[in-house]
Specification:
26% of the residues lie in helices and 25% in strands. The chain is α+β, with helices and mostly antiparallel strands.
């Protein structure tokens, strides 16, 4: 047995490296109404939550409206004239009406459609119709849009629904902050977006995208031979690292992947390219800089295909040979979640590049649908379990670490304790 072969045949090495137990884990957190309500209070009302990229707010006056599913909050996120990105509750302080109905746009001020109270995009109240008929106790300085704690890191915009967050974003990110710092996020202004409401708990959905054990089975006809081979038939992970409450894993890629002769569209798209797969590396200068970052293929393995960086509780930042993409999972209730995936791509410079991009999006879209179509059956089975536990293997270490953090946060009385 060669050293490379041995690397994919170890037992428990990744889980032990995380310092985690190998015992079965409970399924109740995946369907219990009581646990869902506990998560809302102890996680989603205390953790820093990713809401958008800064590129969605490219200039002063830009705004987006984001529904924070499961919390009852709708956030109005603005790029102020001072250059700051700030989130507010999209609710008029007068009678509570929604102030901005559009999902995105550009405006220097906002007027509530109910009674025309008008606000600066920095949140201050500017004008009140028939103001003299209000009482002296109303101070306009205290009647602006209510702020939501907002911080930006590396272009990632986060909010915190706690009136006074216990820790700032940098402390919350912990080791992930330095590990991922400086990545060149190519095409961050140009996403292809898919959304869906899924019949599954948010953790059930998230788990489906942070393990590779299922790939040779669920994805047998699509990426089964791309992410597995005779050397690694079960698509075991190349590596995994804890990043405080967050985590990262690296997936195997088959360097001997060859296009099926019958796959004529893929063959046409790859004609003249160095790579022979739709996950082949872009050879542009920016792509080379992107791949040179130490967090991308951190083990510098010839068998690498992609990395999955999971930011607690609900964001995945995935990096491949030439681009990045994200998955988000927002809980709606204990059995339903809102899902969004964004594939970020540079604008094509040639017709062939555009063709290859379309092929890539179609293919990964098909792969995502394979995952999503299985979730309802996973959720039904979880609720119908005869044992109440799940048995995880070593390539599912990210699931084990993620659930361990969820359980820890629901028990911790303070965020400092949850981060410890």
């Amino acid at each position: 047995m060669t050293a490379v072969e041995h690397k994919f045949t170890g037992r428990g090495s990744l889980t032990e490296g995380f310092g985690l137990s190998t015992e079965p884990l409970p399924l109740k957190p995946y369907y219990s109404r009581e646990f869902f309500e506990l998560e809302q209070k102890m996680i989603f009302r205390r953790a820093w939550l990713y809401v958008c990229r800064a590129e969605e707010l490219p200039e002063p006056g830009s705004f987006v409206v984001k529904t924070i599913h499961g919390t009852g909050v709708e956030a109005l996120i603005t790029h102020t004239k001072a250059g700051r990105i700030q989130a507010y509750y999209n609710s008029c302080p007068h009678r509570g009406s929604i102030v901005v109905k559009e999902s995105a746009g550009k405006a220097s001020r906002f007027s509530c459609p109910y009674h025309r109270w008008t606000f600066e995009n920095t949140g201050e109240l500017l004008g009140v119709p028939d103001e003299e008929n209000f009482f002296q106790s109303m101070d306009k300085k205290n009647c602006g849009l209510a702020k939501i704690a907002t911080e930006v890191w590396e272009g990632w915009v986060f909010i915190n629904l706690s009136p006074e967050p216990e820790v700032g974003l940098k402390e919350y990110l912990g080791p992930a902050k330095d590990y991922l710092s400086g990545i060149l996020y190519r095409g961050a202004h140009n996403p292809v977006v898919y959304t869906a409401v899924l019949d599954s708990n948010w953790k059930t959905a998230s788990d489906a995208f942070i393990e590779s054990y299922h790939i040779p089975h669920i994805h047998k006809k699509t990426i089964g031979t791309t992410f597995a081979s005779r050397l690694n038939p079960y698509s075991r992970l190349i590596g995994a690292r804890p990043l405080g409450i967050h985590r990262t894993i690296s997936l195997f890629g088959n360097p001997e992947y060859a296009i099926d002769p019958d796959a004529r569209v893929e063959a046409l798209g790859s004609m003249g390219q160095e790579g022979k797969s739709v996950i082949a590396a872009d050879v542009s200068e920016d792509a080379v800089r992107f791949r040179a970052h130490p967090a991308i293929n951190p083990d510098r393995s010839e068998h690498w295909s992609m990395d999955i960086n999971q930011i607690f509780p609900h964001l995945h930042i995935d990096t491949g040979p030439g681009s990045f993409w994200t998955h988000q999972f927002w809980p709606i209730d204990e059995k339903t979640c809102f899902y969004e995936v964004r594939f970020y791509i540079e604008e094509a410079r040639t017709i062939q590049e555009r063709f290859l991009q379309e092929l890539f999006i179609c293919r990964v879209g098909e792969v995502v649908l394979e995952d999503l179509s299985n979730l309802q059956f996973t959720q039904r089975g979880i609720e119908n379990s005869g044992t109440g536990v799940m048995h995880l293997q070593d390539s599912e270490v990210a699931i084990r670490h993620a659930l361990t953090q969820v359980l820890k946060w629901t028990r911790a009385q303070t965020v400092k304790e949850a981060l410890a």
